[in-house]
Amino acid sequence: MSAPHVVVTGATGFAGSAVLRRLAAQAPQAVVRAVSRTPPATAHGVRWVDADLAAAESLRGVCDGADVLLSLASYIGPDAERCAAVNSAGTEALVAEARRAGVGRIVQLSTCAVYGPGPHRGQDVGELTPAPVSPASRSRLAGEEPVLEAGGLVLRAGLVLGTGDRWVVPALVDAFRRVPAGWGGGEGLASFVDVDDLARLIVAFALGGGSGGGSGSGDAAGASGVLHAHHPEPVRNRDLMTALAGHRVLPQRPAGDWPWPTCLDALAGTPGWVSERQFTLLARDHWYRADEAWRLAGIAPGPGPLARLGRAAQWYRERGGLVPG
Q: CA-to-CA distance for 234 and 188, rounded, in angstroms?
């Protein structure tokens, strides 16, 4: 496509903003329609549309004339009704509108949280059965169904880092304040991705791939189904905590390690916002194979999220362990 028409929902969000930046850099000729409940006052070279996934009538016409839909909007808060309205019913209405408009390519951003509490150690998509435990992850799993039925691509991402992250590192800061030790030796492995690398992957699948440091031999345009979308190499918890301390986001990691039951007792005994389930997700094994996504996209995954942390260090130092919001 010489001048692809791309619709991006969730365009003011964490991942959506990064995707808009990537589209502007990689495909300045693209006609981009950015969808948000709160469009900015300045257009920044894109056409902004005020629409809400929870209000199906507001979606009418948002995909008219589009070649590609990037479904990046989600609600990850505790309100179960809003989770269902946005992530499940809203995505279904959006995909129905895309199909009505004849959109040829649909890419949706989902989450590995749909797999539930784990532990998970290097499985690929076909080796796992989703078992979501929160309203957000249950509704996001349900929202994958209309995309897959339409022949689209679902990208399940691990934990996303970078400027704009209001959950992952702030949660680590809150948890470390309450559990000021190495967590079970810091041996837990988890899948992470820098938000700009995630944006590279999403845009590669949107536009057909083959640029951005890869061999260009992938099949991004024909990819469908479900893929994992994070860096192929998992990150060890102690390495992440050490890197955050090096960027002055965390205090220097203490020499002592606490066994896991002691960590849970300390977490429960000290006020804070991170739950035991969230703490377990951050500190224990939750990593998934992701080689296939990068191969199909025809791009290299880059040096990894720890190498990218410096770009977001100031954001994290200013935000600290604030409750997401």
A: 9
Q: Which amino acid is at 84?
A: A
Give exposure, 283-299, as e/b (b: 16+ Cβ within 10 Å): bbbbbbbbeebbbbbbb
Is residue 68 a contact partner of residue 7, using CB atoms and an 8 Å limit?
yes
Phi, psi (degrees; rounded to nearest 5) at 140:
-70, -35
Quote the CA–CA distance of 168 and 173 in Å, as a whole number: 9
Task: Decide: 106 and 147 in contact? Cβ < 8 Å.
Answer: yes
Residues 6+ apart with CB under 8 A from 107: 68, 69, 70, 71, 152, 153, 155, 202, 205, 206
In three-state secondary structure terms, 267 is helix
CA dist list (Å): 311 to 109, 126, 140:
23, 34, 29
Please give the DSSP secondary-structure letter assigned to residue 183.
E
Q: Which of 2, 8, 58, 4 is CA-nearest to residue 33?
A: 8
- CA–CA gap between residue 164 and residue 154 (Å, rounded): 22
pTM of the model: 0.95
Residues 6+ apart with CB under 8 A from 149: 95
User: pLDDT tens string for the chain (325 positions)?
Assistant: 468 999 999 999 999 999 999 999 999 999 999 999 888 866 667 899 999 999 999 999 999 999 999 999 999 989 999 999 999 999 999 999 999 999 999 999 999 999 999 999 999 999 999 999 999 999 999 999 999 999 999 999 999 999 999 999 999 999 999 999 999 999 999 999 999 999 999 999 999 865 544 444 468 888 999 999 999 999 999 999 999 999 999 988 666 899 999 999 999 999 999 999 999 999 999 999 999 999 999 999 999 999 999 999 999 999 888 888 7
Rounded Cα gap, residues 140 and 142, in angstroms: 5
